[in-house]
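Q: Fold this one first, please.
A: Sequence and structure below.
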Amino acid sequence: MPSYEYVKCTDLKQAFDLLSSREQAYPLAGGTDLMVGMRGGKFTARLLVDLKDLEELKILREDEKGITVGAAVILNEIAAYEPILKNIPILAQGAHSVGSYSIRNRGTLAGNICNASPAADTAAPLYCLGASIVIAGTGGQRTVPVEEFFTGPGKTDLKKGELVHSVLVPKPYPQEKGVYIKASRTGSVDLATVGVAVQRWGDKVKIAVGAVAPTPVRALAVEEAVNEKGEKDWARAAKLVHESISPITDLRGSRDYRYHIAEVLVRRGLEQTMGV
């Protein structure tokens, strides 16, 4: 692995200055994707900007706006946080699905989405919850909907010198059940071959699917059938997921298999959340 410089930041301004003024500078929180990517040649970093000790990024709180998860909060803490377990357990399920226990003890929610893998386990739940990404940089803060944050495989809306400050899941929370269902080669620790989040909102539903398109996607045709047309045959509704996805063949599964398993998981999610 090529040599690089390392700076442990004492405040956010220092981080912004380094990220905006230096080439090939990367923010470091958990490092579970970044360090592997550097060893494998995916990233060529000349500077690592360590954010782990910045208290501003360690915020995990619930207030009148909703639940805020700071960029340096680890996944195990998210999966065990009582307000998340009580109000938005689908996010806890997604966080718990990432890697192994030791990975979740280092990895962060911000890192999971900033890696911008279409298979990110936390992305589909965040889509179903209407989450917003708070982005900070030298020009101040801006907020974007999670669905606009992902722009392509490995690509996000972040500009040079910016970083994710926090993720906000706003109130009101859904009062009904939500599930995140993941199919993978090993059943654990592996990336999703297909990941499906289904969240009931009253008598309506939101559905998001990962690893079947360049970014996570909403299954809008399925949602329309259930929410607007009153479809109650979940198997028939689930077939419509094909209209929203464009999977590829890779080492985790073929295109045809992903079409099939996405349909199966959407049906199971509808059965578990909307009733058999």
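Q: Good. Now the second chain.
A: Here it is, same layout.
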Amino acid sequence: MSTRLLPAFMGILIGLLLAAVLFVPYIARQYRRRGELGMGNLALALAAVVYGVSLVAYVLLPFPQLTPDFCATSGMGGPQWVPFNFLNDMKKEATGSSVLATLRNPALTQVVLNVGLFVPLGMFVRHLFGRGVLATTAIGLGVSLLIEITQGTGIWFAYPCAYRLFDLDDLIMNTAGASVGAWAAPVLRAVPGQRITALPGVPRPVTRSRRLLASLCDMTAYTMLSALGSSGGLLVLMAAQGMLFQGNAPRTEDIPGSWAAGLLGVWLPWFVLAVVLPVAGSSTSLGQRIVQLRATTVDGGAPGTGPRLLRSLTGTGGYFLLAQLGDASADVPALGPFSGLAQLLALVSLIGLFATAGHRGLSYKFAGLRIVDARTAPEQAGVARVPQR
């Protein structure tokens, strides 16, 4: 991959991974602060995360290889302190006096790129965080200064000398770009799906998209907890090897003690999300709680332990259990059918969201429960409020 495409590719990839990590906390914050999500807000937040990571990737990547003669072959020398020095560079790079030749001048192209690179920063800062033009411009200056210092110090002395130049012109143009973005930020108001339909504390309808968003939050939370638990289990295993074998440990894959990764990465997240949270905590899944949904009995009361557990095991909790048993079929072939059962449960549950009144879903129907907005008053949560079959 070329050095020009690498920063863009890595920025988008890492940005999307970071967005996945922040997805559940972001949804929870939006529902607490606004009472609903709004797809426009989600799209702008995703764009801001990917842009931020891509900006860092662009100014730092690719990392050069550190060699004994690194400073002699890759070093950039001292900083460039002359303001608007790009005008001299344009004269040196000029290939003609026509307008087209001027527009193609590499020095001018670099200036335009530096301005354009920070325009999204100014737009996102002002629109998403509500800062004024002056504050947004100052933030752009601060971010640009941090980038220039990072480049001028060889990533804070990680390299013996700078492999990119500290350029005062870059600082000026980046700041100008942030200011332009601040003035252009009102354009982002045209993105649909940002305005709230009611005050944050007012109940909203239980819609299919809201139920699906809750399931997506459940899937994301389980995946993140599983990855975190697996990493923790691996660390436990490595520590145990160091203590028990004193550096002469057999290979990790040969040790039955890999149960630590399975316990912390598979079964503990499942137990917490599918059993502890619905039974001992709220009666809903984590995702449903995040999008402000709660379970009630038909008359609007609080569900008992049995219906709570049944709802979980016939919903996302059951899906996670079947999926993990299916994954274990590589070691125990008899568990192979569980993978198909997991997919069948997911399909039937999806159909249930469309086929049941009030988007109750099959898990709530099996448990004899109803699902309502968490902000609905108890006296309004009975069957007379929203009939569900």
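Q: Anything worth noting on the second one?
A: The chain is about 65% helix and 0% strand.
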